[in-house]
Amino acid sequence: MSAPSPLPATLALVPFRKPVTGVVEIPGSKSLTNRALLLAALCDRPVTLTGALFSDDTRLMAEALRKLGLTVHASEDTHRIEVAGQSSIFKSTAPVDIFVGLAGTAARFLTALCAAAPRGVYRIQGTERMNQRPMKGLIDALRALGADIRCTSVEGFFPIEIHARGLRGGPVAIDATESSQMLSALLMIAPLADHPVEVTAVGGVRWPFVNMTALMMQAFQPDLEKNVERIDDTRFRIKKGTSPVYSAKGIHAIEPDATAASYFAALPLVVGGRTKLAHLHLGLQGDTAFLDVLRRVGAVVEPGPGGFEVSYAKGSARAGVTENFNEFSDTFLTLAAIAPLLSGPTRITGIAHSRKQETDRVAGMVRELRKLGQEVDEHADGDGLTISPRPLKSGVVIETYHDHRFAMSFAILGCHDLNGDGSAWLSLDNPACCAKTFPHFFDLLASLRLKSSAP
After folding, report:
1. Alpha carbon of 181 to those of 105, 230, 384: distances in Å?
2. CA angle, 164 as apex, 170 and 138 as ends, to 5°?
3. Which residues pair with residue 428 across a beta bridge?
4. Are strands 385-388 and 375-378 parallel, antiparallel or unpaired?
5. Which is catalytic among the residues 175, 330, 383, 403?
6. Where are the alpha helices (DSSP H) in 3-93?
7. Fewest Cβ atoms closer than 10 Å to its Cβ: which of 49, 116, 164, 446?
8. Judgement on whether residues 189 and 265 belong to the same structural domain of the protein
9. Cα torsion at 405, 411, 412, 413 (round to 10°)?
């Protein structure tokens, strides 16, 4: 695949003049790619990931595995990543420095992986914002299992230094309320402990991502189903594994990213027409639940053997909805950004935890929608917002807060032909932040616009 087109510091969004029509090739899932990279690192043979995502987050994860001693060959043209040299992991006698940028998955997964190492010193840090994101629940749980983790700035946050000595196992409680990635990280490395691990999740957990992790663990080790027991709604028991822990078949396919698909699934509601989301299906990812939200707004969503097709006839009803996004919160921004085009209020709840992601997504969405002239009520409990549509203001520049999901969500709203003449009315600051998970997003959007405007 060619490199994405360069983007200006501020991008004026060009509306669609005609309804969209086209097939959208969604990139591989970031969540699945980074989980697969960690699991592949613990396999007994080389593993090739097909359909893998190439983005800032997955490149950081791959580079970290190289620093840990693995061989990682990546082919962006074919969307394949090969992980080999598993016998060389954790052999460095010198301290290993790992940079995770703003990648939450890489930060949590690599912390757990390095804490489970039998030896070595590992220093992990991220960007200034990553150093503010929640890590305490995972750090506390790993320490309870015997890890020596030292927070070198603020307790409970990055940067950290791990003096690895393995994990002893036993019972452990983890508070993954602020990020289910912490529980997922603990589950994936638990078989490395010296004794069985019994994990109890305290507080609320977004289970779709945790269930996705458990299913991936089984995909990488079919016998693992016998070794990972779901005791009840909050407890898992993981038996001690052999070393290496996982025994993959050699090839593992990554599903298209359901969160990335949400933008192009919402596009017909903004401009009319239809998009086919190639190869997307109801698989491991909980974010496919967003398709049901679009149905209630007014889209027609039809599954098929080649993927989902989403359509909307201009002039049909587009209703505001009430939705709890707790279990698929990455997609709430997609709905919030197009809420000004709906016929009534949209009430979004279950998103308090998203205040501690790439930015405070709730407060940021409130600010940007108000700039567009919308009436927005930020709920007093901090867990949601209600958007009441008002006439959109033209000439607004949306601040993305270095958050890829702000950029992509408002880019879809900008496809609306507000002035009726195809002139740009909405701009994005720092659109290049999409490289975190979807480097070719704007190229794909432009190709759909061009195809839809063809005679």
Report:
1. 6, 18, 21
2. 55
3. 11, 398
4. antiparallel
5. 330
6. 30-41, 56-67
7. 446
8. no
9. 110
Q: Residue 250: helix, strand or coil by DSSP?
A: coil
CB 453 within 8 A of CB 37: no
Tokens 């997003």, residue located: 441
CB 442, CB 5: distance < 8 Å: yes
Chain segment 322-360, per-residue pLDDT in tens: 999 999 999 999 999 999 999 999 999 999 999 999 999
The model's pTM is 0.94
Residues 6+ away with beta carbon under 8 Å from 97: 67, 123
Residue 3 lies in a domain: no
Closest Cα to residue 399, out of 358, 437, 439, 440?
Answer: 358
Confidence of residue 227 (pLDDT cuts 50, 70, 90): low
The residue written with tokens 């049901």 in the block is: 292
The pair of three-digit structure tokens given for residue 391, joined into one six-digit string: 């006439």
Residue 301 structural domain = 10-28+255-453
- The CATH code of the domain that includes 423 is 3.65.10.10
For 442, residues 6+ apart whose C-beta sits below 8 A from its C-beta are: 4, 5, 7, 11, 411, 431, 434
Q: Is residue 25 a contact partner of residue 50, using CB atoms and an 8 Å limit? A: no
Residue of 112, 83, 98 lying closest to 189 (CA atoms): 112
Residue 88: phi and psi, rounded to 5, are -95, 0
Q: Can you tell me the distance from the alpha carbon of 390 to that of 393, in angstroms, rounded to the nearest whole number?
A: 9
Do 23 and 46 lie in one domain? The reply is no
Note whether 400 and 431 are within 8 A (CB).
yes
Residue whose pair of structure tokens reads 């990335």 in the numeric block: 260
Domain count, the chain: 2
- How far apart (Å, rounded) are the C-alpha atoms in residues 185 and 107? 10
Q: Is residue 443 classed exposed, middle or buried when 0-12, 13-18 and 19+ CB atoms within 10 A define those classes?
A: middle
| 79-110 pLDDT tens trace | 999 999 999 999 999 999 999 999 999 999 99
Q: What backbone phi and psi angles, to 5 degrees, belong to 7?
A: -120, 145
pLDDT band at 243 (very low <50, low <70, confident <90, very high): low
Between CA 137 and CA 122 the distance in angstroms is 19
- Report yes or no on 350 lying in a domain: yes
- Is 330 a known active-site residue? yes
Q: At what angle do helices 30-41 and 56-67 cross, to 10 degrees?
A: 10
Question: Looking at the structure, do residues 260 and 236 belong to the same domain, yes or no?
Answer: no
CB atoms closer than 10 angstroms to residue 423: 12
